[in-house]
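ligand=heme C
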Amino acid sequence: MKRLAGIVTVVFALVIITSGVYAAAKDTYEFKGGTFGKVTFNHKAHQDMGISCQKCHHKDEAGKEQVCSTCHTKDSKVKAKEAFHNSCKKCHEEGKKGPTKCGDCHKKK
Ligand code: HEC
Ligand code: HEC
Ligand code: HEC
Ligand code: HEC
């Protein structure tokens, strides 16, 4: 019996570990945001608004979404700052919903 319990535990552990290979989105992300202060992004809240995944994950196939920084860095053609501002801020401006002022997204502690 003890041995069976041991095997069951190992199988469960493997299932949990391997399912972690495909990154799931966290509920919230915190970006450093440079000297203007950190930005908190509620991924879950935005998903629940019914915005399509590809609206933000514009280069990714469904189920294979990556972090923006895979392609957008300080040195990429479209820099991380532009990518975020032209995604986040632009949508808030166009939809007239969500924060558009610097200090409403960037918080200094
Ligand atoms: C409003 C924009 C937005 C929407 C809508 C959105 N995401 Fe995201 N998602 C992001 C951002 C921003 C990140 C974090 C990126 C980073 O850290 O650079 C992220 C991260 C992720 C990650 C984590 C990737 C990793 O390797 O850690 C997954 C998976 C993901 N999103 C899947 C989805 C799916 C599936 C949907 C649709 C049901 C969706 N997202 C909708 C903006 C969005
Ligand atoms: C696989 C690479 C890749 C990933 C991942 C990626 N991008 Fe992009 N992005 C690009 C490239 C390349 C461009 C340049 C224009 C084009 O080819 O569409 C771009 C352009 C953009 C633009 C238009 C910039 C402008 O000039 O207005 C925005 C906004 C943007 N990305 C936001 C994001 C956000 C937000 C994420 C993460 C949720 C993300 N991107 C993830 C490659 C990527
Ligand atoms: C395609 C549209 C769209 C994109 C892209 C988008 N948002 Fe939003 N966001 C909204 C809308 C709509 C609301 C307002 C929801 C409400 O007031 O009910 C909102 C609300 C917010 C809020 C206030 C409520 C909360 O969740 O705390 C913050 C902060 C925010 N967004 C940050 C971001 C950041 C950071 C990004 C980029 C990583 C982003 N948003 C990208 C549409 C968008
Ligand atoms: C809708 C939310 C939002 C608004 C409004 C906004 N930002 Fe940002 N900003 C972001 C996000 C998200 C990032 C990416 C942060 C990161 O990568 O650490 C960013 C990045 C930056 C960066 C680059 C930080 C770095 O180290 O690369 C600067 C500078 C900046 N913002 C200044 C501003 C200023 C100035 C304003 C007002 C005119 C403003 N932001 C308005 C969300 C916002």
